[in-house]
Amino acid sequence: MKIKTSSWSEKAFDIVNIFLMLLVLVVTLYPFWYVFVASVSTIDHVIGNSFLLVPNGIHLEAYEQVFRNDMIPRAYANTLFVTIVGTAISMILTIMGAYVLSVPDLPGKTLLTFFVVFTMLFSGGMIPYYLVVNWVGLVDSIWSLILPGCVSAYNMILMRNFFQNVPRGLYEAAVIDGIRPTGYLFRILLPLSTAAIATVALFYAVGYWNDYFTSVLFIRNRELWPMQRILREILLTSEFQNMMYQDARQTMPPETLKNAMIVVAVVPILCVYPFVQKYFVKGVMVGSMKG
User: Fold this and answer.
1) Max Cα distance, the chain (Å)
2) Digit-coded pLDDT (tens) for 206-254
3) CATH superfamily entry for domain 61-288
4) Could you tell me where the DSSP H helices lie in 138-211?
5) Are 158 and 196 in contact (CB under 8 A)?
6) Using CA atoms, how far apart are residues 167 and 253, in angstroms rounded to an integer?
7) 103-123 burial, b if ≥16 CB within 10 A, otherwise e?
8) pTM score over 0.90
9) Which residue, 130, 2, 199, is CA-closest to 138?
């Protein structure tokens, strides 16, 4: 039996494809690498090299200065609280809503699904959004970063589609065995939906971690600011010296501190992705299929 070898056209396609993917990889990763190198290099090395590849040593003075500021640990605690608690609340509500919408014989299922999808296309606008949050008393509260947007219609539809792809026979067998709908959800459906749960949880966690605009709208007290709000103020406003330098004698270059702040704000959420990456593709592909 002859083994079919690849033609020259297939080999050329593979070479071009690999080259393009490597180019995309470099273009995507280099900005992160540049920021890291700039955060651990001396200012002379950064100024003298417009294209940084390697640092001239490892200098951690910028990170020491960042964590010496009282605002950073407090902002980290706020961000961790919002991300962990917000993701937990969002997942509970999303799973409950998705499970209800996945029940085939649910009365009014089409109307409920329409209401969920409608919110993906139209919203009340920023002013009504602020008025509602203010009316329920969440302005200048840490809960204003969690509760107003704790459910994503897209994530709910994604989870619902995943639930609908589970064979209907499992539900019928569970009913015959005397398992109630809630028992079917917790004992059968959720263990089979690990990929979808990990994917949607990652979406929520990244959204909570990277969100700064909600705090701009609702938070005035600096003790409640999340990490991304402080990073925004440092990068875009003129208050950098007052916010970061507790000691007027400090001479740390502002650009080095800014790069260190970016690394501190980005690295934690990047460390989460490798643990859920194996579920990510499966969860998105299966959940995006029409149930």
Assistant:
1) 79
2) 899 989 899 999 998 888 999 888 888 777 765 555 555 555 345 566 7
3) MetI-like (1.10.3720.10)
4) 153-164, 168-176, 181-184, 190-192, 194-210
5) yes
6) 60
7) eeeeeeeeeebeebeeeeeee
8) no
9) 130
